[in-house]
Amino acid sequence: GRTDLTTELDVVDRADPFADLRVIGAFRDLYLLCEDDAELLVVDQHAAHERVNYERLQAAVDEVSLPTATLDPPASVSVSPAVASLAEAHADLLADLGFDIEPFGGGTLRVSTVPAPLGRTADADAVRATLDTIAAGETPDDPRDALLAEVACHPSLKAGEQLSTEEAEQLLARLGECEQPFACPHGRPTICRIDEATLAAGFDRESTRFD
Questions:
Q1: Distance between the two ends of the chain, CA-based, in angstroms?
Q2: What pLDDT is attached to residue 11?
């Protein structure tokens, strides 16, 4: 289920919660398998990277303009008339986030630049996904948060992107620096914990130890 971002995530020890984790493998090039002294932790690398990107984007937007990438030729994004109107209404906000957009007629938006945060270029469809969210009335109090969440999602690691052990450790280190490391910006958990007792019960053991 989704994590309550206003309660559970506020109570986080600011010491790196993942400092003692050891990366021991991966499953389906999406889930990082890690262990500490008492638990097996499964980390969703997409959700974790999305959280890292989101918080770094928040900091960047608060301080300076985001780096952008020029699309040559510009991308055409098909949207409904209502979403096209919404794009015009939020044009300044989209520009602040690195999107250069203009109506192209017939329910089409022409996207000339996209955000390129952290060395990764956002997909032009991030515009449509973000505006669809706002049009559906699912946007939070600050519309920028919805936009940032979508911008953070599209350049984040996806299933099938294999990480080396060093890259996985770097991702965990960055996640440990986040203010709210245990959920992605949409509220989905980044980590699933499996304690030793749960594993033992699955094998009809009192303990996983051999002593």
A1: 37
A2: 39
